Amino acid sequence: MNTHRPWKLSVAGWAALLLFAPATVLAHQEIGQITGFASGFLHPISGFDHVLAMVAVGLWGAVLGSPAIWVLPVAFPVTMAFGGLMGLLGVPLPGIEIGIAASAIVLGIMVLAQLRPPLWAAAILVAFFAIFHGYAHGKELPEGASALLYSFGFVVATGLLHLVGILLGEAHRWAVGRQAVRAAGGGVALAGLFFLWQAVAA
């Protein structure tokens, strides 16, 4: 007599699947969330062009003083998040690398020359360049990662880089520090020219 009963094995298999599926889904979501935030956080600091431009925003804000010292570091991440959304959605935006290189050149010159435009003009300039940086971040979303946490990660990293720039920029209060800040701005601008050359030659 055949005692093998496939339907019992099938029921047992379905029961096991129902028991383990939620845990598998949760594990996948947690991995996606961790990957999302970590990847987003590391993306800005893994590219020297991003790092220099974001530090330059903080430097320029410190040079301009209040309220620019906090307006510029707020305007950049907010607008960058919008650019990141454009990248995530695949909205066409030409000249990304050129825009990123130009941001380092222009912001570096602003710090080097200690230029002091009206606050609204400075904020618009910073926000304009932030779109290119955000778009570049948005396009690099890892497969299976949380888009929200990825975006949150690169916004947090950007804010910290701005803070580094602000802290370094505070040295402009002293004569020697002012020259050092201006030299840093010149270095950022020169690096931007190199990035631009790379972007055009690519």
Tell me the number of structural domains.
Answer: 1
The residue-averaged pLDDT reads 82
The percentage of residues in β strands lies in under 5%
Q: How helix-rich are the residues, as a percent range?
A: over 70%
Task: Look at the helices and sheets and give the structural class.
Answer: mainly alpha
Written as H for each helix and E for each strand, in order along the chain, the element string is HHHHHHH
Topology, element by element:
Blueprint: H1 6-46, H2 48-64, H3 68-89, H4 96-113, H5 119-139, H6 147-169, H7 175-201
Walk me through the structure.
There is one protein chain. The protein is mainly α and 202 residues long. It has one domain. It is 84% helix and 0% strand. It has 7 helices and no strands. It has helices spanning 6-46, 48-64, 68-89, 96-113, 119-139, 147-169, 175-201. It starts with 5 loop residues before the first helix and ends with a helix. The model is unreliable at 1-34 (pLDDT under 50).
